[in-house]
Every structure is written in C-alpha cells, then in structure tokens.
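During the first year of the project, the team set up a workflow for recording each protein of interest as an amino acid sequence followed immediately by a discrete structure-token representation. This format lets reviewers and collaborators read both layers of information side by side without switching files. As required by the reporting guidelines, we include two representative entries from the current panel. The first entry is reproduced here exactly as it appears in our internal archive.
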Amino acid sequence: MIREKLIAKINQIFVEQFELEPAELTPEKRIFEDFALDSLDIVDLVTGLQRQFGISLRDNKDVLAIRTLQDVYDLCEKLVAENPDIKAKLSD
C-alpha cells in the first residue's frame, strides 16, 4: 500500500512539473530519452521530491544513477523506508 501511494505522489510530480500524461508514466520509461528532461529538470524533480516527502537528496549520490522512472521509485522507497515519520504518513 505504501509503495502505491509513493508511486502516485511521484507520478503527480511528473504530471504537474513536466506536463506529462499519466499514461506515459511507466516504470521502464527513461527520464532523459523518453521524457526529454534535462539536467535542470532533474533539479526541479529533486526539489519536488524533497518537498513532497521531506527527504533530503542534496548529497545523495544515488540521484546521479537515476535513469528510469523505476529508479526514482526505488530511490524514494528506500529513503522513505529509512524515515519512520514519512513512512507513517504514507501508511495513513
């Protein structure tokens, strides 16, 4: 249940910030190639994720490895799992 809520919130960021259609948001989609995002868009994405979940990605080297939407899901899931407060909010 938490994963589904997490994915829905991440997808909402992509829809709102990058004007993508929800149907386009499948895990295997490549951030740069399929969505045509650039490095400045990634800064916006990171900012949106930090705001949405209250997680810090500032010095997180895993951000550099993001290539697909699945990578975003996995990274956020890992960070949320490490933070009981955020995990509890998603459980509600």
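The second entry, processed by the same pipeline in the following quarter, appears below.
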Amino acid sequence: MPVAWIMFLAYLSYGIPSVLLYFLTLFIVIRHRKTFDSSFFQLYCFDGLMNLFTYTVGYLKTRLSSITCYHCVLALFYRNIGNCPSLLNFVMCMNYHMAYVQYAITSLISLNRLSVLLKFNTCEPLWRKYTWLLVLAIFLFPFCNTRCVFMYTAEIVYLNESDSYNLVSKQLPASDIFSVLIPFMIVIILISVAANVASLIIVGNINNSQTRNKAEVNFIVIMSITCLVQLIGTVLSVATLKLSGTPAALVLAKIVPFVSDGLTLVQPWLLIGFSHAVREKARLMFASRWSPKKHSVSVVARSATF
C-alpha cells in the first residue's frame, strides 16, 4: 500500500470520530444554550467553527490531493479548481492564516479562564458580550501578514513521481510569513502558559479541598495538552523552516499535519473528558427510551467545564 494511502487512512482513523464528536458537542452546547450559558462555551463554539474550517482546508490542500491519482475521480475536481486562481490563493492563504487564529484563540481561552477566576461578576458579562468581537479581530488581524499570499499565483500541479496533485505557490516567499508567524507562536505560548499557571495558583488557594483538587487536575491536564501541542507545532515549524530543502524537511513535512490536527481536534475530547454536564447530555441523547431516567445535573456557568 502506498505511503500516501497509509497516512490518509491514519488521518481518517482519528479525524472522523473527532469531527463527529466536535459536531456532537457543538450541537449539545447550542441546543442546551440556557444550561451552557457562559463565556467559555461561547469561545468553545467559535473555536470549534474555526477548527473545523481549518481541518477542511487541510483536507482540501494536503490530504485528499496526496491520494488523488491522474485517473481518479477526484482528479477532475482538482483540475477544475485549478482554473479558479482566486480560490487557490484563498486556500493557500488560509493554510498560514489559520495558524495565527488557532494559537490566538487558545490563548484567549486561557485568559478567559484566568479573568473569570479573578473577577467573575465583572469579567463574565464582559466576555459574554464582547467574545464575538474578539474572535472577529483574531480572524482579521493576521491578514496584515498573510495578505501577501494573494500577490502570488497559486496553482494545482500534478506530480508524476507520486501520481498525485499538490497546491503550490512557487514564487511565494514563505520565509516572510514565518518570520512573523514563528515569533507570534512563541509569544502566544508564553501567554498561555502564564495564564494557565496563574489560574492553577488561584485554584490551588480555594478553601474547599474537593473543589480545589478536581479543578487543579483539570487545569493541569488542559494546560499540559494544549501547551505541549502548541510547543511541538512551534518547534516543528522552526525546524522545517531552518532545514528547508533537506531530506529532514521532507520527514518533518509528514509529521506537521498530525501535530496540526492535534491542535485542531483535541478540544472536543477534552470537553467530553472534563465536563460531566456535557457527558450527561450526550448520554441522554443516546439513551434508550426504556432506560431509567436520572435527575438532571445542575450546572453553574463558572464551573461547567469541570
């Protein structure tokens, strides 16, 4: 079996359940918005939409094209979109653009947790009122750097040696984008770590030991997973840039998509893992009509994620 197909099947093995879980959790949060009426879940929904969009762009640019041979059914699709340079430039731009968005929203969520812990009555209403504006700003601001992609022509090329298609922009100076993107990633990681550590310290000072221990574990795990994935992504991005044109860069190019997917798809698993309320809603959705009914779980917006 070709390596491209093995990697594609690997993508599907975690991609399909993760995407389905994403839609399930988003459906639960939106359907029960009166229960999950907090700024955290607003951010989760916005983050989910951005991540699903990022995942779709990645599949269009890299995953599907890598297994599409010249005589495959999808070959016609790639040859046709090759006649739409504006669409190709947009997809190429989003390939870099959404890295900014993902890292920034992750940091925003960390700052949300910290501020709500510090001043719940003051910060929570402000977050719920202006979250959409912050997310909009996060999505638009990276165009200051990534708009340069539209100055170069992206195209779909057929690779005879691998019998596949690829989206490339031969004249695009990727180093100009990475020269801003890499420092941005490093700063965002530092902000996320600082916010999560501060939140952990605050939670550790809570008098109720049962609440403290449960929240502490949640913060440690969430902080560790999120920051670790971000850190790995940054290290690999730096290494890919420094080793460009070498065999090592080709190896890293195979690894980066998995790390990117980790940052994109880990959120619904974390939510299901750490939110009893979400798990309960999911269980009730799939429970048999003959299952004995249990009392509903009351949720406090401030601690719904735990």
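For the second entry, the following points were noted during internal review. The two ends are 44 Å apart (CA to CA). The longest strand covers residues 155-159. Both points are flagged for discussion at the upcoming steering committee meeting.
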